[in-house]
Amino acid sequence: MSETAPASAAAPVGERRNALRAVVLAGGLNFEREVSLSSGTQVVEELARAGLDAEIRDADADLLPGLAAAPADAVFIALHGATGEDGALRAVLDLAGVPYVGSPAAACRLAWDKPAAKSVVRSAGVPTPDWVALPHSTFRELGAGAVLDLMVVRLGLPLMVKPASGGSALGVQKVSNVEELPAAMVSCFAYGDTVMVERYIEGIELAISVVDLGEGPQALPAVEIAPASGVFDYTARYTPGLTEYHVPARVPADVAARAAEQAVRVHRALGLADLSRTDAIVSPDGEVHFLEVNVSPGLTETSMFPMAVEAAGHELGEVLAQLLARRAAVAR
Hints:
Layout (H helix, E strand, L loop, with lengths): L12 H4 L5 E4 L7 H17 L4 E4 L5 H7 L4 E4 L4 H4 L2 H9 L3 E2 L3 H8 L1 H10 L7 E5 H7 L1 H12 L3 E5 L9 E3 L5 H9 L4 E6 L4 E8 L6 E2 L3 E5 L6 H5 L4 E4 L6 H17 L5 E8 L5 E7 L9 H8 L4 H16 L1
Parallel strand pairs: 1-2, 1-3, 3-4
Antiparallel strand pairs: 5-8, 6-7, 6-8, 9-10, 9-11, 9-13, 11-12, 13-14
């Protein structure tokens, strides 16, 4: 499957729209199921406004038989967490010959592994905070206290503790003193076997969405994130009123331009396709630091990708319909 369709593939969307059979995948069996169902419902509604009927389906045992009985022209993956982002489902769709919007399986596996993605991004010349990623077994075998002391010496305080893979900021915590670190690690291990401890950088958090409608990946206006708690965790992301969003972000033009350039560079360096969202933080000196990338951006009412699409002057449904039409055209 080609990662980039010809620009002309997006042109006839309006003419083919009613004939296009689209399936939206949402749900899954993980911590982010409810968020995914909300995203999937929103996608179906936005596509309907754009004149395209879409069926929503879960990623369960009925999915492959259903797609075999009634093949989709293209699938939109609104699954979050491992189900939609670690590449496994996309690999199965590839095996079944089902075209889908989004990044290929191998790129998703790389992006899903946050430490590995940071290594690739740093090699591409994009700044990212220093980090250490260690499995639970290392703390058990070498002694948690000794290992934690070394991490504090190496990275300093405060720290961000997060699962090495995962989305929606599940398990993410800011640690301001040594006494808080053990409990934060234990909490984080509930979401995965490996924890990434990252140097905390004070600054302005940005979400920079990237979309490719046929002319190469383009960055949309950055969204500035201002959580009332100071930490953009799961609660701050999905509870209306707990976070303020400003789009375009209230940063100098040169900083916004650098953030946009870096988001596109991340998208290319990791081999992503169609759409992505890069999370970054701008330090007081104006440096833009990469935090992580999402290959299946949220599409709920409080999600940043729809905000960015609107700020760019586009209709979300039209963008999603174009992405589906391009993938359907490539498959043919």
